[in-house]
Amino acid sequence: MSTAIPTPRHAELALLIDRLTENLGDGIHATCIPRLAVIRASAPTDRFHTVYGPSVCIVAQGAKRSIAGDRILDYAPGHYLTVSVELPVIGQVTQASAEEPYLCLRLDLDPALLSGLLIEAGPRGRRAPEPDLGIMLSYTAPEMMDAAIRLTRLLSTPGDIAVLSPMTERELLYRLLTGDQAAMLHAIAMGESRTAGVARAVNWIKDNFREPLRIEALAELAHMSPSALHQHFKTVTAMSPLQYQKQLRLQEARRLILSAQSDAAGAGFAVGYSSPSQFSREYARLFGAPPLRDIARLRGGDEAAMNAAAG
């Protein structure tokens, strides 16, 4: 995709997010509007492994890179990013400074809300086929940016949130449903879509990643044959179900060690590995170093900035 062109509206959104986060520091900050978060990073970050949930992210200032499988997505003001399923990615803030931090608005997507809105909106022409990978980048239309700004502005008037935020969120979702990423939003909303089937499988793996993986049972849950599940799962997530489970296991083990809740051996067993040598080998393959050396490197960096990369 060609370079996006920021507008004065992006500067307006950046100013709102900057005011909300300047005293909170770097990181992902939940707000009093359900599902809405603001993100700040005051310096570029190293690459950081994380999992994106179904969400839309609108960049107001700075730039970021997300890597899913072999797909590299670079985005900046003028772009929005949509994720349709829980997706392991590598995130990295690439452009940020103390004077001009990376600033982003993230809205987690509620499938039930999308489904209801889709029914109300009715059919709007021929529906495009579902997108391949469950992450997509597009240009932010003026109407979408206007709704995002008004939703963010409500955070300065808490008394208005209960009445006005549901309407403004619905407007933002409507703009998404009628924009470039309509097919992805339809896939999230429709329970029998291919993406929804993969999402059911993803949610089971996420909730049971320590357990042995039985493809036949997972395929039944997704309402697919085992071969179809493998094909569609890899299309949407850029990895097989087993590779997906492995990423979740290793990311959880990394979190346990980094938070000092476990040593490396204990973390491996806690996430489902029976062999310490296999755990150490696969950990190093994913994160570039064995557990102890990787954790020492992470503790020497800026954890808040890495958390911002994770958002």
TrEMBL record:
Domain of life: Bacteria
UniProt protein name: AraC-type DNA-binding protein
Residues covered by the HTH araC/xylS-type domain: 199-297
SMART domains xref list: HTH_ARAC
Keywords on record: DNA-binding, Transcription, Transcription regulation
PANTHER family linked to this entry: ARAC-FAMILY TRANSCRIPTIONAL REGULATOR (PTHR43436), TRANSCRIPTIONAL REGULATORY PROTEIN (PTHR43436:SF1)
GO molecular function: DNA-binding transcription factor activity; sequence-specific DNA binding
